Amino acid sequence: MQGEAARGYTIVDDSNDPVLALAERLFAAVSAGDIATLREIYAPTCRIWHNADGVEQTVEQNLTVLGWAVKHIHRLRYEDVRRQRTPTGFVQQHVLRGATASGKELRVPACMVGIVAEGRIVRLDEYLDMAHFSPLLTPAR
To answer: In this predicted structure, what is the pLDDT of residue 110?
Structure first.
């Protein structure tokens, strides 16, 4: 847990709940850019939905986007993490932090709702305001 605290995580005791432990694995894998672990965590039929565009992604589409993100967001990490168990999975609020290649800071408040079945994520709904990604989308000066 000390390594997680150093990356800016709020320590959440997930050790006694397999669903919350799975959520921790998910966000740790995203932070590390560990696509193989993400592929293990997602059920093959998982769908990932984003409020910003209303589109459901397949696992492979989502992994492509996450691969791009970890290449372009330096020091990617989750801060101010608040995670709770729900009857069907978990909900997590957090602030995604990092920096662009030019050093612009990125701060994206978000909420994710995960549905878990048989030890894998079968659906993930992500709520965020895409305007917070503008430092990634504007050219460096």
So the answer is: 95
Q: What is the DSSP string of 72-90?
A: HSEEEEEEEEEEEE-SSEE
Q: Give tens-digit pLDDT for 2-12.
A: 344 444 544 45
Q: Which pLDDT tens digit goes with each residue over 109-125?
A: 999 999 999 999 999 99
Distances (CA, A) of 105 to 93, 101, 102, 108: 19, 10, 9, 10
* Beta-sheet strands, E only, within 31-119: 42-50, 56-57, 74-85, 89-99, 105-117
Of 28, 26, 30, 32, the C-alpha closest to 115 is 26
How is residue 55 annotated by DSSP?
P
**What is residue 46's DSSP assignment?**
E
Virtual torsion, Cα 100, 75, 61, 59, nearest 10 deg:
-160
Q: What does the pLDDT read at residue 77?
A: 93
Instruction: For the chain, state the CA radius of gyration.
Output: 15
DSSP, residue by residue, 3-31: HHHHTTPPP---TT-HHHHHHHHHHHHHH
What lies within 8 Å, CB to CB, of 55 at 6+ separation is 49
